[in-house]
User: Fold this.
Amino acid sequence: MIQTIPAPAPRTEPRTGPGREPGREAGPRTVRVALAGCGTVGGELLRLLRDRGPAIERAHDLRFHVVRVLVRNPARPRAVEVTPGLLTADLDVFLAEDCDLVVEAIGGLETAGRIARHTLARGRGLISANKALLAATGAELDVLARERGGTLSYEAAVAGGVPVIRVLREALAQTDVRSIHGILNGTTNFILTRMERGASFAAALEEAQARGFAEADPTLDLNGQDAADKIAILAWQAFGVLPARLPVARRGLVPHPDRLIADAAAAGGTARLVAECVNGPEGVAAAVEPVVVSRDSALGRTPAEENLVIVETGSSGTLRLAGPGAGGGPTASAVLSDLITAAGAAPATRTRSAPATVDRRAHRWAVSIAGNGTGKGRLAAAAAAAGITLADALDPGPATVRALTGPTSRPLLHGFIRSLEQAGLEPVALRVVSGD
Ligand SMILES: NC(=O)c1ccc[n+]([C@@H]2O[C@H](COP(=O)([O-])OP(=O)(O)OC[C@H]3O[C@@H](n4cnc5c(N)ncnc54)[C@H](OP(=O)(O)O)[C@@H]3O)[C@@H](O)[C@H]2O)c1
Assistant:
């Protein structure tokens, strides 16, 4: 059921800063959020705040209160219902709103840039999903945030729901990253994977737009600029190079997407749009281009709107981060995570009162026992006694008897193993997993 976002309550909290006023009564701290944009990402963020609000209060002691929503057309029907009084198309009204944190999910450079500078100049926290803005002015905004005591967060700007910024900035902060490459544009990956299976370019693009992966104007997805902005942001995180100064050699899917599919197949592989940045002896170089990869490589197996980021390091080996790279849900989740961090909540382990249980799902198991001659009969007899079906006999080894079970729960399997152990048959069991 669609619910209404509550109207702003009177402010009871200090305007900025994570701390509670000394002597204040316990209770969730209210954080006032101004949201620019109520489209795919902004609308989904409102839905998340509504649905996850109680859980956020319990886990982080925070209550996010949306005080203003900036849109282009307040009369437009929305997927999530917003209290009409919150919507405004007037940028000055939006900028004048008294708030703690601002989320920018409108895209573009001009209005988004004004919102960003205005927010950071006042020492507030800005959370942005806007890769174009970050690639063009991220370093400048970062300086402004530091000078004025605000915060700048943009996990959602690269790879949607995959927390790659945090990994580079925090987990790998002191690691010798050598290169980063991967699939950073979910729209083009979606299109390529659909075309591989016979869809036309136009039909695949239309589906990507209908499902909310593609930007309203997909030009920047298709010509590689979106991925170029993202790899520039990652190069900034990993190597400190100014994103606006990094020339990214760029080729996209257009103008001949059909030929990319056919040529990659003729070369024995599949086509992917790959972004990369490398820290070499002469400096940092970056590119976005179509590549042929083998179908069973990590890049070749990255499906539909997924993203994959591969980080090569000297001391920590190779890291692979994969997950949903686009779409309202994953992107809004990343924004929400930034909101919680920017609100100053200490990272919390979410110990909940969820009941613990025993997993009774059925799996297939490869079971073997030591023994020869009579072993096969003994295995079958023990299985029958345990209520387990042996689906297939596997090739016996020189001194072992092997079989595959039918669908069997873990508790049943464990009882079976115990009975084999008690009979001195030295059982070994492996769960049979299909897929990843
Ligand atoms: N969609 C994704 O999967 C995804 C993933 C990662 C990052 N992002 C980034 O997130 C941002 C938002 O993307 P989106 O897909 O949510 O876009 P969207 O669906 O087109 O929504 C944009 C929203 O911003 C409002 N808006 C746009 N320009 C405005 C202006 N000049 N003044 C006031 N309001 C304005 C629109 O108002 P109306 O509704 O009235 O038109 C709309 O509510 C972009 O920077 C995008 O690159 C998106």
